[in-house]
Amino acid sequence: MATASTENGGDLLDRLRAAGVVRLGIAGEIPFGYIDKDGELTGEAPELARVIFKRLGVDKVQPVPTEFGSLIPGLNSQQFDVVAAGMYVNPDRCEQVIFADPDYQMLDSFIVRKGNPKGLHSYQDVVAKKAKFATGTGYAEIEYAVGAGYKQSDILIVPDQVAGLNAVEAGRVDVFAGTALTTREVVKKSSKAEATKPFAPLVKGKPHVDGGAFAFRPTETRLRDAFNTELHKMKKSGELFRVLKPFGFTEDEMTDLTAKELCGG
């Protein structure tokens, strides 16, 4: 019977409506999807999921926390129904899952010592000035640095942006690369470090803007399309920005990018 249900775009939406609950794969990453100190599910993606799934007739969201690297395998092995983790859309991932259109776009930014003594504003600067460079586990920024000519084995990999800030403050590295949003949030309380102006990394010589989106199993096109319909209404009315703003997103992170563009289609 599997073929019958997949031919018309899957029946997951009907099943979720009947169950009244959708299981969200999250990776415990602030501000995208995480459990807060009171044990409650929050983050930009879960809060957006609550609104959209309610409009699709599914009243409850249930978190399924996992490692970031296990989100796609977990989705495809049906451990949860949708990835709600602010996942960047890229061609490799597009071969394994289908994405809604991005709910945000993101530039990169560096954490550097106050005053940016080495004048680091791009990955090319990091290479030219032989700066000691750090970024997070599994971050897209690793590829951007390597693409600019930085030796992968010389990159200090740290768990997250807090560890990155600590490494810069302690002088173990000159620069930590992350998203514009996470870097500007984490330096707010620092007296020794600051975040640089956001910039688009170069990929194959062209400025590249990332976009994060919800991911679905490849057979579930009906659910993805229904989700997109509601998402686009929220973009148009400005409601999307109101949902994302409490998590540190600005107008600059609102986007008209499509999944198709970011998948390379």
Automatic annotation (TrEMBL):
Matches recorded under InterPro entries: Ectoine_EhuB, Solute-binding_3/MltF_N
Alphabetical UniProt keywords: Signal
Protein species of origin: Streptomyces spiralis
Protein name: Ectoine/hydroxyectoine ABC transporter substrate-binding protein EhuB
Molecular function terms, GO-annotated: ectoine binding
A single GO BP: ectoine transmembrane transport
Pfam families membership: SBP_bac_3
Upper classification of the organism: Bacteria, Bacillati, Actinomycetota, Actinomycetes, Kitasatosporales
Residues covered by the Solute-binding protein family 3/N-terminal domain: 21-251
Coiled coil (UniProt feature): none
Source domain of life: Bacteria
SUPFAM superfamilies tied to this protein: Periplasmic binding protein-like II
